[in-house]
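hey
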């Protein structure tokens, strides 16, 4: 009886209906495939983090300081590279922290009214207040990054004619604001401007 069934006859040519029936049965048997896509948001986050990392690496290179009549940097034969740290510039006319003027100087000296204790004081009040803000910001950043704790690193760029008392007052103010790892920026002997 199965031999007489025209649907089971393999010798006859397939009809369009047979082809559609076979295709439908094959499609029903296949599991529904998930749409494969590429989520680029995590990749964008990763690229942003890498960009910040690279910028920080390039920023920790040699300090770029423009010398002027008010800022002449002393020379040295030291081979130590400049490290990434808070930047304090002492010229004959001002003290600048991270590119912003904090205090004006007269011939390289701090006005007595700007110091705690007047003429005999060592703490420069406007500088100390500014340094506390930077300290708090750097400590907050360090608390979120265990690999880079707050070390109180400072890069001092001072004019070679800066009076010792002014330099001492700046260092004392830095110490009071918990910045104790000091580095002085100098020109390598033989560089232009020496």
């Amino acid at each position: 009886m199965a031999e007489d069934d025209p649907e089971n006859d393999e010798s006859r040519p397939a009809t369009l209906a047979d082809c559609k029936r076979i295709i439908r049965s094959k499609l029903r048997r296949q599991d529904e495939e998930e749409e494969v896509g590429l989520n680029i948001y995590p990749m964008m986050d990763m690229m942003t983090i890498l960009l910040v990392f690279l910028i920080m690496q390039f920023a920790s290179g040699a300090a770029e300081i423009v010398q002027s009549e008010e800022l002449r940097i002393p020379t040295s034969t030291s081979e130590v590279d400049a490290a990434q740290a808070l930047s304090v510039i002492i010229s004959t006319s001002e003290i600048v922290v991270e590119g912003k003027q904090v205090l004006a100087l007269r011939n390289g000296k701090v006005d007595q009214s700007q110091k705690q204790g007047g003429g005999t004081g060592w703490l420069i009040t406007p500088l100390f207040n500014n340094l506390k803000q930077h300290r708090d910001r750097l400590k907050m950043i360090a608390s979120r990054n265990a690999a880079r704790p707050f070390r109180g690193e400072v890069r001092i760029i001072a004019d070679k004619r800066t009076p010792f008392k002014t330099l001492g007052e700046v260092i004392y103010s830095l110490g009071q604001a918990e910045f104790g790892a000091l580095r002085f920026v100098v020109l390598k002997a033989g560089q232009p401007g020496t």
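The chain has a mean pLDDT of 76. Helices lie at 16-29, 41-59, 125-144, 164-176.
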